[in-house]
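Q: I'm teaching a short session on how sequence maps to structure, and I want students to see two examples side by side rather than one. Could you give me a first protein with its sequence written out and its structure tokens following it? Keep the formatting plain so it prints cleanly on a handout.
A: Of course. Example one:
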Amino acid sequence: MVKHNRFYRKVWASKSDFTGALAMWLVKQSPYIVPDNLSVCIIKFYNKLDEIATFDELGMAEVELSTLTSKVDSILESIPEIVQLNERKNKREGIGFSSRYSKKPEPDDDFIDITAVAQDITCCFAEREDAQCWLDKDKTD
């Protein structure tokens, strides 16, 4: 399979872009309105962002999309509060699905897929870059 060049591009991102994307995807994937220890998860993630890229004095960095998911996933899996979100509270095993809107099974039967969160964060940056290209399509230099 040949991958398109757009997956090998670099994009500019701020530290708050990363923490905002993490917060959004943890909330979107959570069976609860607010995931446990959300602020702790965000702060610990923020403190490890230098493992992703070198941020300048304005908190901006150029990041490679092709390696971003694995870098983000590595950080997420190193934060115990985030790893805990990847486990069902009721410890049940096997396939099951619930959401914050489900009546049964209980939300304690669901979890946040950490690897999917890492992929979703990368997609945020890729989609934003795609949107900017579309917005700039009629501009001339």
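Q: Perfect. Now a second example for contrast.
A: Example two:
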Amino acid sequence: MTTQLIGSALDRVVNSKTFSRSRSLQDFLTFIVTQSLEPDQNLKEYRIGVDALKRGGAFDPAENSIVRVQAYRLRAKLADYYQHEGQSEDVRIDLEPGSYKPVIRECAVVATLRSIRFPGLTLDLLPVQRLADDSPEVDAVGFVYTVICSHIDALLRAALRHRNPSRTSKLHLQLDFSARAGSWGFRVIMFLNNADANSVMMSRALSKAPGATVSELEKAGIEIAQAAWQRIDSLLSSNG
């Protein structure tokens, strides 16, 4: 990963709405990321207190816990940023407990949030976000996700075009995906959630060995989409 790519990711974080009212956290994050890229990096608590938080040369970490407190706040703020405003970032910066050295990783985000809306039904298609690796199976995950989303969209439009929804039916559902990929192949799990009740209504898993053909991947994605549609159709019928 290049220094320029990391610098661009850092700029987006510190200039985001999430960090807009946290100048001290902006300075903290900028300092530790910049230092982590130096050959003679110095990420000791004293150095952070003096140079990032401007506590002066008399700063004593043994008597002043400001660095530890700010590190705790920074971890929480970064988690909030990547969960919401920065969910489509291709580079992620984290600060793990017990360390002041940032963990900088490339991420693969298959897609951003999509919502399909019909009278009486909202279906959110949540993005797949996972750590990237060098495996070609990462591309297979993205392809299967696209097939699932496209097919479920087509099924919904075809089935609901002539259906008269109940006026009391207001279903809010989510398709949520988790994925892992590596030299062994890949595994995708789809969850159909009731968004209002925050509960899982069904799940379906797909595992493939390396080198699956496009037609095999497409068939698997369609099968998952059809399984989700059957559950959604039964819910619409029971609510209608």
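Q: What should students look for in example two?
A: Point them to this: DSSP finds six helices and eight strands in the chain. Also worth mentioning: The CA atoms of residues 90 and 102 lie 16 Å apart.
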